[in-house]
Please model this.
Amino acid sequence: MSYVRTFLPWIVFAVIPSAQWQWGALAALVAAVAVIVQQRRAGAGFDALIIETGSAVFFAALAAVALADPRSAVHGYSAALSSATLALIAGVSLLIRKPFTLGIAKRTTPREVWGLRPFVRANTVITAVWTAAFALTAGVLALLAHAGQGHSTAATAVQVAGFVAPMLFTSRYVASLRTEAGAR
Model:
């Protein structure tokens, strides 16, 4: 559920028809702000809201461009830009040694585990996989957009795969770590 909440603005943007991209960007901005407000009220720190905060900034900029010029060339590349932005946010979280998944994992993990090296290492691996998936997705979507297929069924499939693959990796990797820890 945490990942759905984290990526809710991106899901909102994806389900609104491409022809209405300016309203999709605005709705995604509203969703990002709502998630941040809701999570802050629930006690989450900004370290747990890295993707959400980056999402709000991205969608504010995208909404401004889209509302100012709905026919902007940015529209054709908006899906690629979305994935590239996620790759950038996730990559920066790795560079500053605050993997974005760490904040998500802390929501369901006992506090005494948070500072342990294996917990941090596991989240670094998970965030690296998400970063790579976002970057690969952005690259493929940019190629599709360049070929005039930025809003095609293929582009949608790439976007879905760009989220599903790292989600599956995350759940399997965490399960294997738990199994390994239980065996000790």
